Amino acid sequence: MNSIWKKIILRTTLNERRKKSSSEKTFSDYELAKGYRLFLILGRRHFKDFILISLGILSASFGFKGFLLTNHFIDGGATGISLLISALTNIPLYWLIIGINIPFIILGYNVMGKAFAIKTALAITGLSICLATVTFPNVTNDNLLVAVFGGFFLGAGIGLSVRGGAVIDGTEVLAIYLSRKFGTTIGDIIVVINVAIFSAAAYFLGIEIALYSMITYLSASKTLDFIVEGIDEYIGVTIISMRSEEMRQMIIDTMGRGVTVYSGKRGYGKRGETKEVDIIYTVITRLELNKLNTEIQKIEPDAFVVMNSVKDTKGGMIKKRALKH
Predict the structure, then answer these.
(1) For residue 210, what is the enclosing H or E element?
(2) What does the DSSP assignment read for 10-31?
(3) pLDDT tens digit string along 200-250?
């Protein structure tokens, strides 16, 4: 491995700024090995995110064009607003998807960070391009099948995008922001938003379409919950690692989260030998899970991590401090 390749790896993965000197800078074997490992971790992560978001775009597009559009059914959230306006004005959905989500992308930049906003902007743009250029067959005109399976494919698309670290529906970002600002739960805010959307659908499109659209929303939300492996908004994470101090610092500095440190003992071996260890506990939103896993892998790939669903939280740093991605 020549010196130029060594510099590229270290600068790309470690983001180190080194001043040029008169003599050629040499790197230790440890620095090179660490830089190469981080390069592989980030490369695998970005490739996985790209695949998940691409599949999410295709699934959501199929749900739109194969089921919902031809029957004028809508969903909740930003996609529901886009579908409703498209049904009333005949403005192409692919323009509305971008226009409606622009404020949410800007809000996501302030709430979730630059990386999340860029991913979301690219995902929404990709969805718009797919809707404009890819042709899908109209699968069925049966209202019940359209409501159930249209919601299924749309929810799967949103869920896959969330797994990839982005969203193609910005309502959740708005709900997170408002929950921090007013101290309410995310679920309550989403319910209020969707009640307003379906009330408008009942007024402009008719009661029957609004009722079928509610089925679409329920199908999409349940599929989304299944795809992201959890029905709750927050994830409690327990980390047992021999590098607990680095884990603690990462959660505070990189994730922008508070931590609780427990003193415990680690048991292992045939005789049950014990060793004292600090146990790290934190609570994150499900949109941050992808990044946290990557950061843990950078520090200690073999760390023991336990994740469990948390219904809601109050106080602390979840709703009071902006996320740092």
Answers:
(1) helix 207-227
(2) HHHHH-------SSPP---HHH
(3) 999 998 999 999 999 999 998 888 877 875 544 688 999 998 888 999 999
> What type of residue is 255?
M
Q: Where in the chain is the domain with CATH 3.30.70.120?
A: 234-310
Residue 115, classed as helix, strand or coil, is helix
**What fold, for 234-310?**
Alpha-Beta Plaits (3.30.70)
* Strand 234-240, strand 273-285: pairing: antiparallel
DSSP secondary structure code for residue 305 in this structure: E
Q: Which amino acid is at 315?
A: G
Q: Are 261 and 135 in contact (CB under 8 A)?
A: no
Q: Are 79 and 197 in contact (CB under 8 A)?
A: no
Greatest distance between any 2 Cα atoms in the chain: 76
CA–CA separation, 196 and 29 (whole Å): 60
Q: What pLDDT, in 10s, does the model give residues 181-208? A: 877 776 678 888 888 999 999 999 899 9
* Whole-number Å distance between alpha carbons of 112 and 289: 12
